[in-house]
Fold this protein.
Amino acid sequence: MKKTLLILLVLFLAMVPLSLFAAGQKEAANTIVIATDATWPPMEFVNADKKIVGFDIDLMNAAAKAGGFKVEFKNTAWDGIFAGLANGDYDAVMSSVTITDERKKTMDFSMPYINAGQVLIVPKSDNTSQTLADMKGKDVGAQIGTTGAFAVKDVPGVNLKTYDEIGLAVEDLANGRIAGVVVDSPTAASYVLQNEKYKNALKIVGKPFTEEYYGVAIKKGNTKVLDTINKGLKAVIDSGKAAELEKKWLR
């Protein structure tokens, strides 16, 4: 009897590592590794606690929870991020990636999850301006050669003032030298919501007035990852969770 119990105990102990290994394998198979260049607040950046945070991070974590998968973020330099995707170093890239026809030739994209189009920044004291049309007769700044500069130029009566760097335009706005600034919404949020120097002096008005959609880039042909991510993203967008996160990070 003792011998039988001993044999059963040995078999049980032998099976435990196998069961743990199988569980680990299952979890690994259910984990999507996503590269992100965590240098662009408020979309993705490393906080004071050395953790990767931001709108993209919160959104994908919510999508993973809704879609029943796990996600692991890998901080990756932008200059090699798409080469790593093609090489299979990770499953996807979520790093404020604009969906373009050119990129679609070499990678697949999830459903669009946010319009990061151009918005208007004005002083908090301005209670009348909501659109570019309201800025007629006034000077509006934008970075030279950008979509924002073209948008300002297209509105009759608005005086475009260009800058080599958008931070200079924001500084001029804060000091009353111009009446507004046009820039993409994540950059606007970074200056107006996240920057202690400007958040009490400036505000974003209206909604994005150009269409520049972000999506998750996925290795061409990887329909399993594409379908899994889309399922999670659709759930958080339909539930209103994505809108909550947009309000938290970008408004």
